[in-house]
């Protein structure tokens, strides 16, 4: 497994230069490291912020599981989407509201065919709300299928 977490991960993260705002580090409640977040007051409704994980070493014709923690805290905070890309990005996951402020786990199967996935993009779309945030943390890539809960 490859740890792509932000405080201690070994992965190559890039802010998208063509979006409307950047994701920023935010301190964890327990004080052990940080996660990446978009506060609700950043930007305007429907603005986008993209954080891209560059993948260079995935083997063709094998499967991987991307596991990550996320939260959508606050009223009408917006949407969190995940795109996988080889030549062009494909939407593979979307969440648009949290029931509460708790962290949840997202899992995405990445099946490598002849085209090899070379990036994963976390996209935040700004909602109407003025409080809360969209956060992502503990991004891990493991080979094989996603484990059952």
TrEMBL record:
GO cellular component terms given for this protein: membrane
A Pfam family recorded for this sequence: MAM
InterPro entries with a match to the protein in the record: ConA-like_dom_sf, MAM_dom, MAM_domain-containing
Xref: SMART domains: MAM (SM00137)
Gene3D superfamilies reported for this sequence: 2.60.120.200
Stretches assigned to the MAM domain: 2-148
Protein name: EGFL6 protein
Biological source species: Caloenas nicobarica
Organismal lineage: Eukaryota, Metazoa, Chordata, Craniata, Vertebrata
